[in-house]
Amino acid sequence: MPVVRDLRVLLRFRNFRRLLAVRLLSQGSDGVYQVALATYVVFSPEKQTSAAAIASAMAVLLLPYSLVGPFAGVLLDRWRRRQVFLYGNLLRALLAAGTAVLMVSHVPAWLFYLSALCVTAVNRFVLAGLSAALPRVVDAERLVMANSLSPTAGTLAATAGGGLAFTVRLAIADSDAAVVLLGAVLYLCAGLTSLLMAPELLGPERALVRPHLRTALSGTVRGLVAGLRHLGAPERRAATWALTSMTLMRFCYGALLVLVLMLCRYALSSGTDDGLRLLGLALGVSGAGFFAAAVITPWAAGRLGPGRWIAVCAACAAVLEPVLGLPFATGPMLVAAFVLGLTTQAAKIATDTVVQSTVDDGFRGRVFSLYDVLFNVAFVGAAGVAALILPPDGRSAPLVVTVAAVYAMVAAAMARFEHRQVSHQ
């Protein structure tokens, strides 16, 4: 397989192997920590979980990406990236241990959420630093290959970390706090692994002249506005349409995830452990859909074009999601999880391609920062909308039908845009 061949080539670079090890441990820890939080919020026997509580947890996990993300690069250009990985992961290990203590203590809910918020805020710096450091450990010829494989490997590590968290929770320790402590240990391992690299190896260059921090931060805000204006130009309509479509599809995925969480907790399980097993299976199946998307999309987008492939993905979701979702049964729900994982990730890969190919290089970073904000705000917003619609057991035909209608609207709009593009050529 080409992916295996490319990975073998990259693994010949010693420092790439070390940076990849930091990524795998960091994102694997994230998977453990996030699943532990989810099970604590959703499946604690002493809690009467609601969709509103799930929405709050999603906001804690994802909003730091949106609020901190655009500014992370400003600080990363001032700090040695190796030190970011070291101290960032050590800080996360300490904060995660604090979260575990709060789980077994009788403290206000806001204090628990604040602890989780701090862990995920630091995470943004680590992930941005991992991407920024890649050009320092591979040559220019293989940089595109590294940019393709490293994030995919990180996503798989996060999925594996989530699977490990479910295994530990169900088979070893009937305690969410114990799972969080496992995440803390893995964060510690990630920090110590970064010590295998020299402090100056990953940059940035100290000789570069940088503006004052206040100037750089205000410049970031202006840069985001400039990126938005750049997207508004007629020649970049393809990127604007793709980003809008992906934002709406991410919204749909977020709403359905809350529905699945509530179904696993109440309607489709006879107890906490059964619900946890079902949720773990659903997330694993969805992860398989993500992997299938990575395999299929290069061929499909090459044949159809990225825009048409987004339309096909949205159309498939619009048709299959209500067919599989409205029975509110375990088997169809698992098939739906795979379909939605595949279509959502396939559309994201195609959107990335459209943005990279149509946005000027000088604006690409700012546009991707906007993309990041839209991606996560849509997810959190979807959780909030689902919290307003869902009944206590999660069975909501109106939500399923509404999501299908949004998918259909995206498919129709993208197909129409692509048709117009062809007509004007």
Could you please describe the fold and organization of this structure?
With 425 residues, the protein is mostly helical. It has helices spanning 2-10, 14-43, 51-76, 81-103, 109-133, 143-172, 176-193, 213-231, 237-267, 272-304, 306-325, 330-358, 361-389, 397-423. The radius of gyration is 21 Å and the shape is globular.
Q: Assign the structural class, choosing from mainly alpha, mainly beta, alpha/beta, alpha+beta, or little secondary structure.
A: mainly alpha
Which parts are unreliable, with pLDDT below 50 for 5 consecutive residues or more?
none
Number of strands: 0
Order of helices and strands: HHHHHHHHHHHHHH
Main sheet attributes: strand count, strand direction, barrel closure: none
| Tally of DSSP helical segments | 14
CATH top-level class of the largest domain: Mainly Alpha
Q: Note the gap between the termini.
A: 36 Å
- Which band does the percent of strand residues land in? under 5%
The shape, in one word, is: globular
Count of the domains: 2
Radius of gyration: 21 Å
The average pLDDT is 83
| Assembly annotation | single chain
CATH homology superfamily name of the largest domain:
MFS general substrate transporter like domains
CATH architecture of the largest domain: Up-down Bundle
- The level of helicity is over 70%
CATH fold annotation of the largest domain:
Growth Hormone, Chain: A
Strand-helix topology:
Layout: H1 2-10, H2 14-43, H3 51-76, H4 81-103, H5 109-133, H6 143-172, H7 176-193, H8 213-231, H9 237-267, H10 272-304, H11 306-325, H12 330-358, H13 361-389, H14 397-423
Helix pairs in contact: 2-3, 2-4, 2-5, 2-6, 2-7, 3-5, 3-8, 3-13, 4-5, 4-7, 6-10, 8-13, 9-10, 9-12, 9-13, 9-14, 10-11, 10-12, 11-12, 11-14
